Amino acid sequence: MKPTKSNPTLSERVITLIEEARRKVAVSANIALVYTYYEIGRMIVEEEQGGKARAEYGRRILDELSSRLTERFGKGWSVPNLKLIRQFFITYSNSLNTVYPIGTLETQSNNISTEKIVHGADDFCLSWSHYLVLMRIANSAERQFYEHEAAEGQWSIRQLSRQIGSQLYERMQKHKDTCSVQELMSKAPRPEVAIEPLKDPYTLEFLGLPEKTDYSETQLEQAIIDHLAEFMLELGKGFTFVGRQVRFTFEEEHYKVDLVFYNRLTRSFFVFNLKLSKITHQDLGQMQMYVHYYDRIVKLPDENPTIGILLSSEEVNDATVKMTLPECEHNRIFARQYKTVLPSEDTFKRIIQQQRIAFENKVLTSKAERKNE
Q1: CB contact at 8 A, 239 and 232
Q2: Measured distance CA(45)–CA(237) in Å, rounded
Q3: Most buried of the four, 18, 182, 229, 340, by CB within 10 Å?
Q4: How buried is 336 (Cβ within 10 angstroms: 0-12 exposed, 13-18 middle, 19+ buried)?
Q5: What is the pLDDT along the chain (373 residues), one digit of tens a residue?
Q6: Which H or E element spans position 29?
Q7: Residues 122, 240, 321, CA angle at the centre, nearest 5°?
Q8: DSSP one-letter string for 283-328
Q9: Which pairs count as long-range contacts for 358-361, CB under 8 Å and 24+ apart, including other chains?
């Protein structure tokens, strides 16, 4: 009998079994390492708290412990590493919503239940290296945000560092857009994902393009295709690629959408047009037609409405958007700026703060206008 997907060969079944076992062993080893470091940190802190001259006493404890552990187990137990392990316990001992709720296990026996520790996919958990990156974040709410996103998205160390460096937390907090997106995604299998705000700005530094737009829209599109995995990570969770320059015909006129994605969590299409200049009312009108076409011709009856996003290298003119598009509760089109070079952290925070103030003023103005009506 010829092997098929439903009837794999013996060797294929054995390979699958071995690979699955290796993944489980790696996850179990990772969990044990993280828990062990947490417990070592707790022991160090408790020992230090028993001393009178804490700073001097603490240094002596770490020196002696480092010497004994290095003698017994070899490299990896230097005083700086032990300080990081101690800091790990201090950082997470009071956290109630961590990805690994290790703080709740400190009074339990050494018989560790992995089900009580792991949060996320069966074959992925945050490693010690992930936590070394996360511990640099002072804000606990921000740190917990990255923990959750990293575990759910199965981010590598590089991806986690990149998202922190691009100020993902601040960008996600700036605009909520919930007045339009939440209502639109009522059929989503995971409504809590559907109401996640769209980023502003999108940071596309991985494209390797210069800050000034001395490249064409075709080059921008090709760079995105060449870095499709990184681009979809920047878009958010659940995105799958449908196509580029997706053509459709309406009343004998031919149109092409630059990029089309489908989000399996929100169960909706996302259509993108790329601009190297300021977004005009013609651009917004064209996108509105694209969205209507996908809603009326392409999407299935049980799917959520299509979202249209115009990505521009120029700062978005809110007045143009407001006068062109319908009111917030019916809006499915969003204009967003993208950046190909990461600004400094201070510059990024200043940009986001300015945009947050502008957005809040726009909401207040809108409420005042409705009240006067």
Answers
A1: yes
A2: 38
A3: 340
A4: middle
A5: 455 566 788 888 888 888 888 888 877 888 888 889 999 998 988 888 765 545 566 678 889 999 999 999 888 899 999 999 999 998 888 654 444 444 434 433 344 333 333 344 455 688 899 999 999 998 888 888 888 888 888 888 988 988 888 888 877 766 555 445 556 666 666 655 555 667 778 888 888 888 777 788 999 999 999 999 999 988 988 899 999 999 988 777 888 999 999 998 888 999 999 998 888 888 888 898 999 999 999 999 989 889 999 998 887 766 666 666 655 545 788 888 888 877 666 665 666 666 666 666 666 666 666 666 6
A6: helix 10-49
A7: 125
A8: HHHHHHHHHHHIIIIIS-TTSPPPEEEEEESSPP-HHHHHHHSPPG
A9: 358/318, 359/174, 359/175
From residue 185, give the alpha-carbon distance in Å to each of 132, 178, 289, 292.
Answer: 36, 10, 20, 16
Strand ranges (DSSP E) for 57-167? none
Which helix H or strand E contains 146, and what residues bound it?
helix 140-153
Q: Which residues fall within 8 angstroms of residue 7, CB to CB, at 6 or more apart? A: 1
Residue pointed to by tokens 């997907």: 5
Structure-token match 């699955």, residue found: 20
Contact 41, 62 (CB under 8 A): no
> Which two structure tokens, joined as six digits, stand for 150?
């990293």
Is the pTM higher than 0.90? The answer reads no
The pair of three-digit structure tokens given for residue 155, joined into one six-digit string: 């981010």
Q: Residue 173 belongs to what H/E stretch?
A: helix 168-174
β-strand partners of 269: 262
Residue 193 tokens, joined: 């994902």
Dihedral sign of CA atoms 159, 92, 57, 46 in order:
negative
DSSP string, 348-359: HHHHHHHHHHHH
Name residue, tokens 């828990």. Answer: 35
Provide the 10 A C-beta neighbour count for residue 170.
17
Distance CA 184, CA 141 (A): 28
Name the 3-class secondary structure at 168.
helix
Cβ atoms of residues 269 and 261 within 8 Å:
yes
- Report the alpha-carbon angle 263-155-239, nearest 5: 10
